Amino acid sequence: MAVIYIGDRNTGKTALAIELTNSIFDYVHIPNQSYENLKALFFDETEDKFRPTPVDPSNVYTTRSLDVEVTLPAGRKTISIDWIDTPGEVWRKSWQLDNPQQWQQVLAAVKQSEGILLVLPPYREMLSPQAPVDFSEFPTQQQWCNRFQRWVDFFHNDCPKVRHIVICLNKADLFCDLEQEAFQLAYDPLRSRKNWYQRNSYVSQRYFRPVQRQLVAMTKPPAGVPVRCFITSIYNRALLELPWIYLASFLAS
User: Fold this and answer.
1) Distance of CA 146 to the CA centre of its chain
2) Architecture of 2-251 per CATH?
3) pTM of the predicted model, to two decimals?
Protein backbone atom coordinates (compact mmCIF):
# COMPACT_ATOMS: atom_id res chain seq x y z
CA MET A 1 0.00 0.00 0.00
CA ALA A 2 1.57 3.25 -1.17
CA VAL A 3 1.90 6.11 1.31
CA ILE A 4 3.53 9.36 0.23
CA TYR A 5 5.31 11.83 2.48
CA ILE A 6 5.12 15.46 1.32
CA GLY A 7 5.11 19.07 2.50
CA ASP A 8 6.07 22.65 1.74
CA ARG A 9 9.53 24.18 1.95
CA ASN A 10 11.08 24.61 5.41
CA THR A 11 8.51 22.47 7.20
CA GLY A 12 11.10 20.05 8.58
CA LYS A 13 10.22 17.01 6.44
CA THR A 14 13.81 15.89 6.06
CA ALA A 15 14.67 16.25 9.74
CA LEU A 16 11.54 14.31 10.76
CA ALA A 17 12.29 11.42 8.42
CA ILE A 18 15.92 11.22 9.47
CA GLU A 19 15.14 11.42 13.18
CA LEU A 20 12.72 8.53 12.79
CA THR A 21 15.70 6.29 11.96
CA ASN A 22 17.52 7.38 15.13
CA SER A 23 16.23 4.62 17.39
CA ILE A 24 15.72 0.87 17.53
CA PHE A 25 14.08 0.72 20.93
CA ASP A 26 10.69 2.38 20.47
CA TYR A 27 7.54 1.39 18.59
CA VAL A 28 8.73 2.70 15.20
CA HIS A 29 11.86 1.58 13.38
CA ILE A 30 13.23 1.99 9.83
CA PRO A 31 15.42 -1.05 9.17
CA ASN A 32 16.56 -0.21 5.63
CA GLN A 33 18.03 3.22 6.39
CA SER A 34 20.97 4.38 8.49
CA TYR A 35 20.67 7.53 10.59
CA GLU A 36 24.32 8.36 9.97
CA ASN A 37 24.06 7.85 6.20
CA LEU A 38 20.88 9.90 5.83
CA LYS A 39 22.23 12.70 7.98
CA ALA A 40 25.43 12.80 5.93
CA LEU A 41 23.33 13.23 2.77
CA PHE A 42 21.24 16.12 4.04
CA PHE A 43 22.97 17.84 6.96
CA ASP A 44 25.19 20.86 6.44
CA GLU A 45 27.83 20.72 9.18
CA THR A 46 29.01 24.26 8.41
CA GLU A 47 25.53 25.79 8.75
CA ASP A 48 24.51 23.30 11.47
CA LYS A 49 21.17 22.63 9.77
CA PHE A 50 19.57 20.46 7.12
CA ARG A 51 20.05 21.60 3.55
CA PRO A 52 16.89 22.40 1.54
CA THR A 53 16.35 20.22 -1.51
CA PRO A 54 17.71 22.12 -4.54
CA VAL A 55 15.62 22.78 -7.64
CA ASP A 56 16.86 20.62 -10.52
CA PRO A 57 14.91 21.27 -13.76
CA SER A 58 16.01 17.92 -15.20
CA ASN A 59 14.90 15.87 -12.17
CA VAL A 60 12.22 17.66 -10.20
CA TYR A 61 11.82 15.01 -7.53
CA THR A 62 13.48 11.96 -6.05
CA THR A 63 11.49 9.10 -4.59
CA ARG A 64 13.13 7.54 -1.56
CA SER A 65 11.62 4.28 -0.38
CA LEU A 66 11.29 3.71 3.34
CA ASP A 67 9.97 0.57 5.02
CA VAL A 68 8.66 1.74 8.37
CA GLU A 69 8.25 -1.08 10.89
CA VAL A 70 5.81 -0.50 13.72
CA THR A 71 5.34 -2.76 16.74
CA LEU A 72 1.65 -3.17 17.61
CA PRO A 73 -0.14 -5.54 20.02
CA ALA A 74 -1.08 -7.70 17.01
CA GLY A 75 2.55 -7.94 15.93
CA ARG A 76 5.00 -6.06 13.76
CA LYS A 77 3.50 -4.17 10.82
CA THR A 78 5.29 -2.60 7.86
CA ILE A 79 4.34 0.56 5.97
CA SER A 80 5.96 1.13 2.58
CA ILE A 81 6.59 4.85 2.24
CA ASP A 82 7.45 6.79 -0.90
CA TRP A 83 9.17 9.91 0.36
CA ILE A 84 8.73 12.28 -2.56
CA ASP A 85 11.74 14.48 -1.98
CA THR A 86 11.09 17.73 -3.82
CA PRO A 87 12.13 21.32 -3.34
CA GLY A 88 9.32 23.06 -1.48
CA GLU A 89 8.72 25.36 -4.44
CA VAL A 90 7.12 22.44 -6.30
CA TRP A 91 4.00 22.76 -4.15
CA ARG A 92 3.55 26.44 -4.94
CA LYS A 93 0.94 27.32 -7.55
CA SER A 94 3.26 29.77 -9.30
CA TRP A 95 5.90 27.06 -9.81
CA GLN A 96 3.31 24.59 -11.11
CA LEU A 97 2.05 27.09 -13.68
CA ASP A 98 5.58 27.92 -14.81
CA ASN A 99 6.65 24.26 -15.01
CA PRO A 100 3.64 22.25 -16.25
CA GLN A 101 5.60 19.25 -17.53
CA GLN A 102 7.59 18.81 -14.33
CA TRP A 103 4.42 19.23 -12.28
CA GLN A 104 2.78 16.41 -14.22
CA GLN A 105 5.72 14.19 -13.27
CA VAL A 106 5.03 14.84 -9.60
CA LEU A 107 1.29 14.26 -10.02
CA ALA A 108 1.91 10.92 -11.72
CA ALA A 109 3.65 9.70 -8.56
CA VAL A 110 1.07 11.17 -6.20
CA LYS A 111 -2.03 9.83 -7.95
CA GLN A 112 -1.21 6.21 -7.12
CA SER A 113 -1.06 6.79 -3.38
CA GLU A 114 -3.66 5.48 -0.94
CA GLY A 115 -2.21 7.27 2.07
CA ILE A 116 -0.74 10.76 2.42
CA LEU A 117 1.34 12.16 5.25
CA LEU A 118 1.51 15.94 4.92
CA VAL A 119 3.91 18.04 7.01
CA LEU A 120 2.91 21.64 7.78
CA PRO A 121 4.74 24.46 9.57
CA PRO A 122 3.15 26.34 12.48
CA TYR A 123 1.77 29.79 11.75
CA ARG A 124 3.34 32.91 13.18
CA GLU A 125 0.68 33.82 15.73
CA MET A 126 0.83 30.44 17.47
CA LEU A 127 4.58 30.52 18.15
CA SER A 128 5.69 30.89 21.75
CA PRO A 129 6.99 34.42 22.42
CA GLN A 130 10.31 32.92 23.56
CA ALA A 131 10.73 30.70 20.48
CA PRO A 132 14.35 31.08 19.24
CA VAL A 133 13.41 31.71 15.60
CA ASP A 134 12.85 34.54 13.16
CA PHE A 135 9.06 34.93 13.27
CA SER A 136 9.03 36.51 9.81
CA GLU A 137 10.07 33.16 8.32
CA PHE A 138 6.72 31.65 9.30
CA PRO A 139 3.40 32.30 7.53
CA THR A 140 0.75 34.43 9.18
CA GLN A 141 -2.42 32.68 10.25
CA GLN A 142 -4.26 33.96 7.17
CA GLN A 143 -1.48 32.82 4.84
CA TRP A 144 -1.44 29.45 6.58
CA CYS A 145 -5.21 29.05 6.19
CA ASN A 146 -5.05 30.00 2.51
CA ARG A 147 -2.31 27.44 1.96
CA PHE A 148 -4.29 24.80 3.83
CA GLN A 149 -7.23 25.35 1.48
CA ARG A 150 -4.95 24.78 -1.50
CA TRP A 151 -3.87 21.47 0.03
CA VAL A 152 -7.54 20.54 0.45
CA ASP A 153 -8.15 21.31 -3.22
CA PHE A 154 -5.08 19.27 -4.15
CA PHE A 155 -6.33 16.23 -2.22
CA HIS A 156 -9.77 16.54 -3.79
CA ASN A 157 -8.63 17.07 -7.38
CA ASP A 158 -5.37 15.16 -7.67
CA CYS A 159 -5.45 12.26 -5.21
CA PRO A 160 -8.22 9.96 -6.47
CA LYS A 161 -7.04 6.81 -4.68
CA VAL A 162 -6.29 8.25 -1.26
CA ARG A 163 -7.94 6.44 1.66
CA HIS A 164 -6.25 8.11 4.65
CA ILE A 165 -4.75 11.57 5.13
CA VAL A 166 -2.43 12.33 8.04
CA ILE A 167 -1.55 15.98 8.69
CA CYS A 168 1.40 16.79 10.94
CA LEU A 169 1.81 20.27 12.38
CA ASN A 170 5.56 20.14 12.82
CA LYS A 171 8.07 22.01 15.00
CA ALA A 172 5.77 21.63 17.98
CA ASP A 173 8.66 22.60 20.27
CA LEU A 174 8.09 26.18 19.05
CA PHE A 175 4.46 26.41 20.18
CA CYS A 176 3.71 24.00 23.01
CA ASP A 177 5.07 22.13 26.01
CA LEU A 178 6.27 18.89 24.42
CA GLU A 179 6.33 16.84 27.60
CA GLN A 180 2.85 17.92 28.62
CA GLU A 181 1.38 17.12 25.21
CA ALA A 182 3.22 13.81 24.98
CA PHE A 183 1.75 12.90 28.37
CA GLN A 184 -1.72 13.47 26.90
CA LEU A 185 -1.16 11.89 23.49
CA ALA A 186 1.56 9.23 23.70
CA TYR A 187 0.83 5.72 22.50
CA ASP A 188 0.88 2.88 24.98
CA PRO A 189 -0.85 -0.37 23.98
CA LEU A 190 -1.86 -1.06 27.58
CA ARG A 191 -2.68 2.31 29.14
CA SER A 192 -2.90 5.16 26.64
CA ARG A 193 -4.79 8.16 27.99
CA LYS A 194 -6.60 8.64 24.66
CA ASN A 195 -7.73 6.50 21.73
CA TRP A 196 -7.19 7.61 18.12
CA TYR A 197 -10.50 9.46 17.91
CA GLN A 198 -9.79 11.34 21.14
CA ARG A 199 -6.26 12.21 20.07
CA ASN A 200 -7.51 13.63 16.79
CA SER A 201 -10.24 15.66 18.48
CA TYR A 202 -7.79 17.04 21.03
CA VAL A 203 -5.16 18.06 18.45
CA SER A 204 -7.53 19.38 15.79
CA GLN A 205 -9.53 21.50 18.23
CA ARG A 206 -6.45 22.80 20.02
CA TYR A 207 -4.06 23.43 17.11
CA PHE A 208 -6.10 23.33 13.89
CA ARG A 209 -8.97 25.54 15.01
CA PRO A 210 -8.65 28.05 12.10
CA VAL A 211 -9.33 25.26 9.57
CA GLN A 212 -12.02 23.27 11.36
CA ARG A 213 -14.50 23.86 8.54
CA GLN A 214 -12.10 22.45 5.95
CA LEU A 215 -11.26 19.43 8.09
CA VAL A 216 -14.94 18.57 8.49
CA ALA A 217 -15.57 19.00 4.77
CA MET A 218 -12.68 16.69 3.88
CA THR A 219 -14.27 13.79 5.76
CA LYS A 220 -17.84 14.16 4.47
CA PRO A 221 -19.23 11.56 2.05
CA PRO A 222 -19.37 10.72 -0.76
CA ALA A 223 -15.77 11.71 -1.50
CA GLY A 224 -14.61 12.22 2.09
CA VAL A 225 -11.73 10.26 3.60
CA PRO A 226 -10.47 9.88 7.17
CA VAL A 227 -8.23 12.80 8.16
CA ARG A 228 -6.13 12.67 11.32
CA CYS A 229 -4.20 15.60 12.80
CA PHE A 230 -0.98 15.33 14.80
CA ILE A 231 1.68 17.60 16.25
CA THR A 232 5.28 16.49 15.75
CA SER A 233 8.79 17.47 16.76
CA ILE A 234 12.22 15.92 16.40
CA TYR A 235 12.70 16.67 20.10
CA ASN A 236 10.00 14.30 21.37
CA ARG A 237 10.02 10.67 20.28
CA ALA A 238 6.48 9.90 21.48
CA LEU A 239 4.95 12.67 19.35
CA LEU A 240 7.26 11.87 16.43
CA GLU A 241 6.07 8.26 16.27
CA LEU A 242 2.32 8.80 16.62
CA PRO A 243 1.44 9.41 12.93
CA TRP A 244 3.30 6.28 11.88
CA ILE A 245 1.69 4.15 14.58
CA TYR A 246 -1.69 5.37 13.38
CA LEU A 247 -0.91 4.53 9.75
CA ALA A 248 0.34 1.08 10.74
CA SER A 249 -2.84 0.46 12.71
CA PHE A 250 -5.04 1.06 9.67
CA LEU A 251 -2.99 0.68 6.49
CA ALA A 252 0.02 -1.55 7.06
CA SER A 253 0.62 -4.96 5.52
Assistant:
1) 18
2) 3-Layer(aba) Sandwich (3.40)
3) 0.88
